[in-house]
Amino acid sequence: MRIVIAEDDPLLREGLALLLRAESLDVVATAGTPDEALDAVDRHAPDVAILDVRMPPTHTDEGIRAAVEARRRHPSLAVLVLSAYVEQSFATELLTGGVGGLGYLLKERVGRVEEFLDALHRVADGGTAIDPEVVAQLFTRSRRDTRLERLSPREKDVLGLMAEGLGNSAIAERLVVTDGAVHKHIRSIFAKLDLAPTDQLDRRVAAVLHYLEDARRR
Protein backbone atom coordinates (compact mmCIF):
# COMPACT_ATOMS: atom_id res chain seq x y z
CA MET A 1 0.00 0.00 0.00
CA ARG A 2 1.43 3.38 -1.10
CA ILE A 3 0.49 6.30 1.14
CA VAL A 4 0.79 10.10 1.10
CA ILE A 5 0.39 11.91 4.44
CA ALA A 6 -0.70 15.57 4.59
CA GLU A 7 -0.55 17.08 8.08
CA ASP A 8 0.73 20.53 9.07
CA ASP A 9 1.84 19.42 12.55
CA PRO A 10 5.35 18.06 11.89
CA LEU A 11 5.36 15.90 15.03
CA LEU A 12 2.14 14.13 14.12
CA ARG A 13 3.14 13.93 10.46
CA GLU A 14 6.43 12.20 11.19
CA GLY A 15 4.85 10.07 13.91
CA LEU A 16 2.27 8.77 11.44
CA ALA A 17 4.98 8.05 8.88
CA LEU A 18 7.04 6.11 11.42
CA LEU A 19 4.00 4.14 12.57
CA LEU A 20 3.01 3.13 9.06
CA ARG A 21 6.53 2.27 7.98
CA ALA A 22 6.89 0.10 11.06
CA GLU A 23 3.89 -1.83 9.71
CA SER A 24 5.74 -2.34 6.40
CA LEU A 25 3.51 0.17 4.60
CA ASP A 26 5.07 2.40 1.94
CA VAL A 27 4.83 6.09 2.86
CA VAL A 28 5.92 7.60 -0.45
CA ALA A 29 5.64 11.28 0.62
CA THR A 30 4.63 13.61 3.43
CA ALA A 31 3.28 17.14 3.04
CA GLY A 32 2.62 20.13 5.28
CA THR A 33 0.28 22.11 3.02
CA PRO A 34 -2.64 21.30 0.69
CA ASP A 35 -0.64 22.27 -2.40
CA GLU A 36 2.23 20.01 -1.38
CA ALA A 37 -0.28 17.21 -0.79
CA LEU A 38 -1.80 17.55 -4.26
CA ASP A 39 1.63 17.66 -5.85
CA ALA A 40 2.62 14.51 -3.97
CA VAL A 41 -0.55 12.70 -5.06
CA ASP A 42 0.03 13.70 -8.69
CA ARG A 43 3.69 12.68 -8.57
CA HIS A 44 3.49 9.40 -6.64
CA ALA A 45 0.00 8.07 -7.49
CA PRO A 46 -0.55 6.57 -4.01
CA ASP A 47 -3.28 4.12 -3.05
CA VAL A 48 -4.32 6.20 -0.03
CA ALA A 49 -4.00 9.84 1.00
CA ILE A 50 -4.25 10.67 4.72
CA LEU A 51 -5.18 14.34 5.14
CA ASP A 52 -5.79 16.65 8.07
CA VAL A 53 -9.06 18.62 7.83
CA ARG A 54 -7.61 21.96 8.95
CA MET A 55 -4.46 23.03 7.16
CA PRO A 56 -2.71 26.29 6.20
CA PRO A 57 -3.28 29.04 5.41
CA THR A 58 -6.61 29.53 7.22
CA HIS A 59 -6.81 26.22 9.12
CA THR A 60 -10.50 25.78 8.27
CA ASP A 61 -11.35 23.36 5.46
CA GLU A 62 -8.25 23.34 3.26
CA GLY A 63 -7.66 19.65 3.87
CA ILE A 64 -11.21 18.81 2.83
CA ARG A 65 -10.94 20.83 -0.35
CA ALA A 66 -7.61 19.18 -1.12
CA ALA A 67 -9.22 15.76 -0.60
CA VAL A 68 -12.05 16.62 -3.00
CA GLU A 69 -9.60 17.90 -5.61
CA ALA A 70 -7.36 14.85 -5.22
CA ARG A 71 -10.34 12.56 -5.80
CA ARG A 72 -11.38 14.63 -8.82
CA ARG A 73 -7.94 14.15 -10.35
CA HIS A 74 -7.59 10.54 -9.26
CA PRO A 75 -11.05 8.92 -8.80
CA SER A 76 -9.59 5.62 -7.55
CA LEU A 77 -7.65 7.32 -4.74
CA ALA A 78 -8.74 6.27 -1.25
CA VAL A 79 -8.86 9.14 1.25
CA LEU A 80 -8.69 8.98 5.04
CA VAL A 81 -9.40 12.34 6.69
CA LEU A 82 -8.21 13.13 10.22
CA SER A 83 -9.71 15.81 12.43
CA ALA A 84 -9.27 16.97 16.02
CA TYR A 85 -13.03 17.61 16.26
CA VAL A 86 -16.27 16.31 14.77
CA GLU A 87 -16.88 18.41 11.66
CA GLN A 88 -20.56 17.52 11.23
CA SER A 89 -21.11 18.96 7.76
CA PHE A 90 -18.21 17.06 6.23
CA ALA A 91 -18.85 13.87 8.15
CA THR A 92 -22.46 13.77 7.00
CA GLU A 93 -21.53 14.60 3.41
CA LEU A 94 -18.95 11.82 3.47
CA LEU A 95 -21.45 9.25 4.70
CA THR A 96 -24.24 10.29 2.34
CA GLY A 97 -22.05 10.60 -0.74
CA GLY A 98 -22.48 6.97 -1.73
CA VAL A 99 -18.81 6.58 -2.68
CA GLY A 100 -16.40 4.09 -1.14
CA GLY A 101 -12.75 4.43 -0.30
CA LEU A 102 -13.37 7.22 2.20
CA GLY A 103 -12.77 7.49 5.93
CA TYR A 104 -13.21 10.06 8.69
CA LEU A 105 -11.39 9.58 12.00
CA LEU A 106 -10.72 11.77 14.99
CA LYS A 107 -7.00 12.20 15.60
CA GLU A 108 -7.23 10.58 19.01
CA ARG A 109 -8.05 7.33 17.18
CA VAL A 110 -4.52 7.25 15.74
CA GLY A 111 -3.22 6.38 19.20
CA ARG A 112 -5.32 3.21 19.13
CA VAL A 113 -3.04 1.61 16.61
CA GLU A 114 -5.04 -1.51 15.76
CA GLU A 115 -8.25 0.48 15.20
CA PHE A 116 -6.42 3.04 13.09
CA LEU A 117 -4.75 0.40 10.92
CA ASP A 118 -8.02 -1.47 10.52
CA ALA A 119 -9.71 1.73 9.31
CA LEU A 120 -6.83 2.46 6.93
CA HIS A 121 -6.99 -1.00 5.35
CA ARG A 122 -10.78 -0.83 5.11
CA VAL A 123 -10.61 2.48 3.24
CA ALA A 124 -7.81 1.23 0.98
CA ASP A 125 -10.01 -1.77 0.08
CA GLY A 126 -12.78 0.55 -1.10
CA GLY A 127 -14.88 0.61 2.06
CA THR A 128 -15.69 3.35 4.55
CA ALA A 129 -14.41 3.96 8.06
CA ILE A 130 -16.23 6.43 10.28
CA ASP A 131 -15.13 7.32 13.80
CA PRO A 132 -17.56 5.98 16.42
CA GLU A 133 -17.74 9.41 18.08
CA VAL A 134 -18.86 10.94 14.78
CA VAL A 135 -21.59 8.33 14.46
CA ALA A 136 -22.69 8.92 18.06
CA GLN A 137 -22.97 12.68 17.57
CA LEU A 138 -24.89 12.31 14.33
CA PHE A 139 -27.28 9.90 16.08
CA THR A 140 -27.90 12.54 18.75
CA ARG A 141 -28.54 15.24 16.17
CA SER A 142 -30.97 13.15 14.13
CA ARG A 143 -33.87 12.88 16.54
CA ARG A 144 -36.51 14.45 14.29
CA ASP A 145 -37.23 11.18 12.47
CA THR A 146 -39.32 9.23 14.98
CA ARG A 147 -38.65 5.93 13.24
CA LEU A 148 -35.19 5.95 14.79
CA GLU A 149 -36.82 5.89 18.21
CA ARG A 150 -38.27 2.46 17.39
CA LEU A 151 -34.81 0.92 17.57
CA SER A 152 -33.71 -0.83 20.74
CA PRO A 153 -30.40 0.16 22.35
CA ARG A 154 -28.74 -2.96 20.90
CA GLU A 155 -30.14 -2.22 17.43
CA LYS A 156 -28.71 1.30 17.67
CA ASP A 157 -25.34 -0.24 18.57
CA VAL A 158 -25.53 -2.45 15.49
CA LEU A 159 -26.58 0.41 13.21
CA GLY A 160 -23.78 2.58 14.59
CA LEU A 161 -21.21 -0.10 13.77
CA MET A 162 -22.74 -0.52 10.32
CA ALA A 163 -22.20 3.22 9.82
CA GLU A 164 -18.53 2.77 10.74
CA GLY A 165 -18.28 0.34 7.83
CA LEU A 166 -18.11 -2.94 9.76
CA GLY A 167 -19.48 -6.16 8.29
CA ASN A 168 -21.65 -8.63 10.20
CA SER A 169 -18.78 -10.74 11.53
CA ALA A 170 -16.86 -7.67 12.74
CA ILE A 171 -20.00 -6.34 14.42
CA ALA A 172 -20.54 -9.68 16.14
CA GLU A 173 -16.97 -9.68 17.39
CA ARG A 174 -17.21 -6.09 18.66
CA LEU A 175 -20.49 -6.75 20.51
CA VAL A 176 -19.50 -10.25 21.62
CA VAL A 177 -22.55 -11.90 20.07
CA THR A 178 -23.08 -14.47 17.32
CA ASP A 179 -23.30 -13.69 13.61
CA GLY A 180 -26.86 -15.00 13.75
CA ALA A 181 -27.77 -12.48 16.44
CA VAL A 182 -26.37 -9.63 14.34
CA HIS A 183 -28.34 -10.86 11.33
CA LYS A 184 -31.55 -10.85 13.41
CA HIS A 185 -30.86 -7.32 14.68
CA ILE A 186 -30.28 -6.06 11.15
CA ARG A 187 -33.52 -7.61 9.91
CA SER A 188 -35.32 -5.90 12.79
CA ILE A 189 -33.66 -2.57 11.93
CA PHE A 190 -34.85 -2.86 8.33
CA ALA A 191 -38.39 -3.59 9.50
CA LYS A 192 -38.52 -0.74 12.02
CA LEU A 193 -37.14 1.74 9.47
CA ASP A 194 -39.71 0.57 6.90
CA LEU A 195 -37.03 -0.61 4.49
CA ALA A 196 -38.60 -3.28 2.31
CA PRO A 197 -36.37 -5.32 -0.04
CA THR A 198 -36.23 -4.03 -3.63
CA ASP A 199 -33.90 -4.51 -6.59
CA GLN A 200 -33.07 -0.80 -6.61
CA LEU A 201 -32.20 -0.32 -2.91
CA ASP A 202 -29.34 -1.60 -0.80
CA ARG A 203 -31.13 -1.75 2.55
CA ARG A 204 -27.90 -1.85 4.54
CA VAL A 205 -26.75 1.43 3.01
CA ALA A 206 -30.22 2.94 3.26
CA ALA A 207 -30.45 2.12 6.97
CA VAL A 208 -27.21 3.97 7.67
CA LEU A 209 -28.10 6.96 5.49
CA HIS A 210 -31.63 7.17 6.85
CA TYR A 211 -30.72 9.24 9.90
CA LEU A 212 -27.69 10.95 8.41
CA GLU A 213 -29.75 12.65 5.72
CA ASP A 214 -31.82 14.23 8.47
CA ALA A 215 -28.65 15.51 10.16
CA ARG A 216 -27.43 17.04 6.91
CA ARG A 217 -30.65 19.05 6.49
CA ARG A 218 -30.15 20.80 9.83
From TrEMBL:
<keyword id="KW-0238">DNA-binding</keyword>
<dbReference type="InterPro" id="IPR016032">
    <property type="entry name" value="Sig_transdc_resp-reg_C-effctor"/>
</dbReference>
<dbReference type="InterPro" id="IPR039420">
    <property type="entry name" value="WalR-like"/>
</dbReference>
<keyword id="KW-0804">Transcription</keyword>
<protein>
    <submittedName>
        <fullName>Response regulator transcription factor</fullName>
    </submittedName>
</protein>
<dbReference type="InterPro" id="IPR011006">
    <property type="entry name" value="CheY-like_superfamily"/>
</dbReference>
<keyword id="KW-0597">Phosphoprotein</keyword>
<dbReference type="Pfam" id="PF00196">
    <property type="entry name" value="GerE"/>
</dbReference>
<dbReference type="InterPro" id="IPR001789">
    <property type="entry name" value="Sig_transdc_resp-reg_receiver"/>
</dbReference>
<dbReference type="InterPro" id="IPR058245">
    <property type="entry name" value="NreC/VraR/RcsB-like_REC"/>
</dbReference>
<dbReference type="Pfam" id="PF00072">
    <property type="entry name" value="Response_reg"/>
</dbReference>
<keyword id="KW-0805">Transcription regulation</keyword>
<dbReference type="InterPro" id="IPR000792">
    <property type="entry name" value="Tscrpt_reg_LuxR_C"/>
</dbReference>
<feature type="modified residue" description="4-aspartylphosphate">
    <location>
        <position position="52"/>
    </location>
</feature>
<feature type="domain" description="Response regulatory">
    <location>
        <begin position="2"/>
        <end position="122"/>
    </location>
</feature>
<feature type="domain" description="HTH luxR-type">
    <location>
        <begin position="144"/>
        <end position="209"/>
    </location>
</feature>
